[in-house]
Amino acid sequence: MDNEIKQGFRSGFVALVGRPNAGKSTLINAALGQKLAITSNTPQTTRHRFRAILNMPTAQLILVDTPGMHKPYDALGEELNRSALKAFEDVDVVAFALDASQPFGKGDRWVLQQLELARVKTILVITKTSLASSAQVEAQVKSAHLAYDFVDTLLTSALEGRGVQEFISTCMELLPMGPAWFSRDSNTDQPLEVLVAEFVREKILTSTFDELPHAVGVQVEEISYVEQRNHYSIEAIIYVERDSQKGMIVGKGGSKIKVIGTEARKDLEHLLSASVYLDLRVKVRKNWRKDAHQIKRFGYAE
C-alpha cells in the first residue's frame, strides 16, 4: 500500500450490491476492461466477496463484488448473505445494481432496507438496459427512488459498454482524497487459487442445469510455475453432493469435463499470459452446502 497521499489523488471502496444475477460482476469486468469476476445466467454465481482494483493517474477505485442477496435455503445461502452485508462496512460508496429487465420486487426492497442501516452514499445503477424498453427502465428508476434516496442514478449496459465510463466517473467523484490502498500494479486482492477455482466453476455453470450448479464447489490442490517456460501446472478438485451429479460433470467418456477444462484453461491463459496445464478431478462430498466447516474449506465463509 502506498500511504503517501498525493495532492488531488482520490481512492476508496465501492461495494456493488443487489439481488442475484443483477449484473454486478459483468459491470466490474467491463469497468476493468478484463475478466476477473465470473459471470453466468445462474443466480448466486458470485460466492466470494472480492475486490477488483482500477488504477488511474489520479485515483484508485476499488470495486467490491458481492454475492447476490436473497432468501437463504441452506447454510451456504446464509453465508453468502452474511458476506454481502459485510461489504457495507468500511466502504465509501454503495452501488445498488437493479436489473432493468426484471420487475422491481420484494427482494429489491429487502436489500434497500439493509442499506438504510449502512448509512453510506448510495448510487442507483440500472443494469442490462439493452434487454429492456425505455418504459421498463423508467419504471425501474421510479420504483427504486420511491423506495430509497439515492445520490445519483446511472443507466448501463455492460455488455454493450454503455454507461460504464459514467459509472467509473461517478464513483471517482464520490471518493475521498486518500492514498493508494493497493499496489498500483494490482488488479485484485484475490489469490490465484481463488481465481482458478472460480473460473472452473463458471464453466460448470454454463454447461450444466437444474440444481447442479449450486451443489458444486471447487478446490485448488496445487499450482506450480516454471518461469523458463512461462508455464503453470494446476490441479483442482470439483466437489459435488451426489454420485449422479459427478456423472453429469464427467459426461460420457469424460466428454463434459474435457470441455469444462478446455474452456477454463483458455480463460486462465488469457488472465496469466502464460501456458496452462489444468488437471481436473471430480469427487463426492455429500451435503457439503449444509456443513459450515465444509463451506469454510471452500473459502465461501467470512
Task: Give a description of the structure.
This protein is α/β, with parallel strands linked by helices and 302 residues long. It contains nine helices and nine strands. A six-stranded mixed sheet has the order 2-3-1-4-5-6, sandwiched between helices. The protein has a three-stranded mixed sheet with strand order 7-8-9. Helix 3 links the parallel strand 4 and strand 5. Helix 6 crosses helix 8. The radius of gyration is 20 Å and the shape is globular. The mean pLDDT is 84.
Strand order of the largest sheet: 2-3-1-4-5-6
Number of beta-strand segments: 9
What does the average pLDDT come to? 84
Range of strand content: 15-25%
Low-confidence parts? none
How would you sum up the major sheet?
Answer: 6 strands, mixed
Compute the separation of the termini in Å.
23 Å
What's this model, at a glance?
This protein is α/β, with parallel strands linked by helices and 302 residues long.
Q: Which keywords apply here?
A:
single chain, 302 residues, alpha/beta, 6-stranded mixed beta sheet, 3-stranded mixed beta sheet, 9 helices, 9 strands, globular
Per-chain topology:
Elements: E1 10-17, H1 24-32, E2 50-56, E3 59-65, H2 75-86, E4 93-99, H3 106-118, E5 121-127, H4 134-147, E6 152-155, H5 164-174, H6 192-207, E7 217-226, E8 231-240, H7 243-250, H8 255-272, E9 275-284, H9 292-297
Parallel strand pairs: 1-3, 1-4, 4-5, 5-6, 8-9
Antiparallel strand pairs: 2-3, 7-8
Helix pairs in contact: 6-8
